[in-house]
Write a structure and sequence with these properties.
With 131 residues, the protein is an alpha/beta fold. The chain contains five helices and five strands. α1 crosses α5.
């Protein structure tokens, strides 16, 4: 299991963001970029290097459709970043969008999310967690 080298972490809960960043760093991720708003996320996707994985909080402080970012990353080429949705309301994610990645219902163990991101195959056993 190889960790993603660069992760875009879209999370407005500072405590969860720190826990996820720590878990990703311990797993070997070299670059974790935390964005707390949709605006910051869009800027990072436009201006920053391409992420290998994206963790998406579904309900952000400035938008209630954080899952919509998943639709945009499919335009990033034939190998889009791995996606993990992080939410207290998994039912709010449209079914076709939820199928783009793995969904974790808050609260969850950050190490389990990292394990899921390390798996390349979306059909891994981790893809069934919290879904």
């Amino acid at each position: 299991m190889k960790p993603p080298a660069r992760v875009l972490l879209v999370e407005d809960d500072a405590i969860l963001a720190l826990a996820l960043e720590d878990a990703l760093t311990r797993a070997g991720t070299r670059d974790v970029v935390v964005c707390q708003t949709m605006k910051a996320t869009m800027r990072e996707l436009h201006d920053g290097p391409r992420p290998d994985a994206i963790v998406l909080d579904v309900h952000l402080a400035d938008r209630d459709d954080g899952w919509a970012i998943a639709e945009l990353v499919t335009a990033l080429g034939p190998r889009p970043p791995r996606i993990a949705f992080s939410t207290g309301s998994p039912e709010d994610i449209p079914t076709d969008i939820a199928e783009m990645g793995v969904t974790f219902e808050k609260p969850y163990d950050p190490d389990e999310l990292v394990k899921a991101l390390c798996m390349r195959d979306k059909a891994s056993p981790f893809a069934l967690l919290k879904r």
